[in-house]
Amino acid sequence: FLKLGCIEDSGNHKRITPLLRFYTSKSEEELTSLDEYVENMGENQKAIYYLATDSLKSAKTAPFLEKLVQKDIEVLYLVEPIDEVAIQNLQTYKEKKFVDISKEDLELGWCLWFLLFIYWLKGEWYLPLAALLFISDGFGVNLMEFVVVPGDEDEVKERETKQEFNLLCDWIKQQLGDKVAKVQISKRLSSSPCVLVSGKFGWSANMERLMKAQALGDTASLEFMRGRRILEINPDHPIIKDLNLKHFLGPQEPKKAQNRMAALHLTLLVQITADCAACKNAPESSEAKRAVDLLYDTALISSGFSPDSPAELGNKIYEMMAMALGGRWGRYEDDDEVEASEVSAAETDTSASEASENQVIEPSEVRTESDPWQD
């Protein structure tokens, strides 16, 4: 009832909000209040970050958390269906804005500092750009990628990374087509190769799941509010690095793994490298397109979305298993052809043997010119 009051009783938000309790990335066993969350915030943290999922287990393993956990930033877990709607109605708490980490343009609280730093560093010359930067935050436009502060090594490195992977992002977008609005470098990943995020004004994966479950749902409004999806790639992940290779040096044996699953994963990674190096050498390679589709489907599920065709996804997974075990795509088709030819040859041999068995040889009288027994 308290969370329902956040939606319907806007006049008592200040009284109701301190009573709310949530699980967090730093308190997965006990519920935490928003006051405790604000007290534990770092000095440079300017927002309250949250993630809405269908269960606590899904929240713990979500790829959106990787960089935040690495930076020791606490995240609220919204695991009840009403949680996300309640937080969106609150918008702020103690002058701290609620930010969904599954949406695009996650800045981790340093955008305002960067704005003030530009104004202090360059004065009035940079004031128009600073104003545009502030306005762009409300319209979902990220102008940070166009600005590099002299002497800031992190910004210079980020700009170089974007230039290095720019062709790869364009190529992946071309392969995926209308499935994604764009492909960009991620600021939120550290161990996952890619993640699928929602548009700034669209539904999150959790909200989309809830709206699909509603009886008599409006399909047209569902497609409209779904908004655009953005594929973010991790430039530090081995798969993405191998995708960006200009030349493939040939197949390599995977290093010794600790267990069978790890060995299969390394074998799969080597094969993906072999297939996807075609993104530079052979952009129309069917093998590279298959690998990109598989990466997209994996990001779709790990990000909390539901696949449009589970059966098609299952076939891709089976094909991936065949590749990992056999070392190439489509081994099942090759094995089926070999098996069919062997069966055909066996049937031919069987029919020939049956024909030879059914053939009857009639006895004939043998006569010689001189038969001594007739004398």
Explain this structure.
By secondary structure, the protein is of the alpha/beta class. The protein has a domain at 159-349: Four Helix Bundle (Hemerythrin (Met), subunit A). Helix content is 50%, strand content 11%. The protein has helices spanning 2-8, 13-16, 34-39, 56-60, 66-70, 83-90, 111-122, 127-139, 153-164, 166-176, 205-212, 219-226, 238-243, 260-276, 278-281, 286-302, 310-326, 331-358, and strands spanning 21-24, 27-33, 47-52, 75-78, 92-93, 96-100, 182-185, 194-198, 229-233. Strands 2-1-4-3-6-5 form a 6-stranded mixed β-sheet. The longest helix is centred in the last third of the chain and has 28 residues, at 331-358. The radius of gyration is 31 Å and the shape is globular. The model is unreliable at 109-122, 124-152, 246-267 and 272-278 (pLDDT under 50).
Task: Reconstruct the topology from this structure.
Blueprint: H1 2-8, H2 13-16, E1 21-24, E2 27-33, H3 34-39, E3 47-52, H4 56-60, H5 66-70, E4 75-78, H6 83-90, E5 92-93, E6 96-100, H7 111-122, H8 127-139, H9 153-164, H10 166-176, E7 182-185, E8 194-198, H11 205-212, H12 219-226, E9 229-233, H13 238-243, H14 260-276, H15 278-281, H16 286-302, H17 310-326, H18 331-358
Parallel strand pairs: 3-4, 3-6, 7-9
Antiparallel strand pairs: 1-2, 1-4, 5-6, 8-9
Helix pairs in contact: 1-6, 7-8, 14-17
